[in-house]
Amino acid sequence: MENLERIITHAELTINPEFIDEVLIKAKTTRDEISLEEGTEIFKLTRKKDEPNTLVIFAVYKSKELYDWHLEQVYVKTFFSFLTNKLLEAPIANQLEEI
Questions:
Q1: Is 12 helix (H, G, I), strand (E, B) or coil?
Q2: Which CATH number belongs to the domain containing residue 41 in this structure?
Q3: Angle at CA 77, nearest 5°, toward 15 and 58?
Q4: Interacting residues of 65 by C-beta distance below 8 A, sequence separation 6+
Q5: Number of domains forming the structure of the chain
Q6: pTM of the predicted model as reported, rounded to 2 decimal places
Q7: Helices within 1-99 (DSSP H only)
Q8: Is 2 within a domain?
Q9: pLDDT for 20-76, tens place per residue?
Q10: Is 6 helix (H, G, I), strand (E, B) or coil?
Q11: What residues make up the domain containing 64?
């Protein structure tokens, strides 16, 4: 039986300013694909006002199984591979829980 507990994620990606324009293009394309996934309830791609090269992603997935499926998609793997050598620091990623 499928686990119906939602997966809620928050991630921050600090992009080297030299690459921000190309990363934004790829991030928006990837966001559009993720938004079409059956398991995606919410996917917000934002950035910090005071640090425009820091992307912040907030996402909610319907279940762990659908989140795991999401992580295996070619466009998700391609995006993270694309970020190689474009980040100033390791991404900060957290799983959250509703209260």
A1: strand
A2: 3.30.70.100
A3: 55
A4: 2, 3, 39
A5: 1
A6: 0.90
A7: 20-35, 64-71, 74-82
A8: no
A9: 999 999 999 999 999 999 999 999 999 999 999 999 999 999 999 999 999 999 999
A10: coil
A11: 7-93
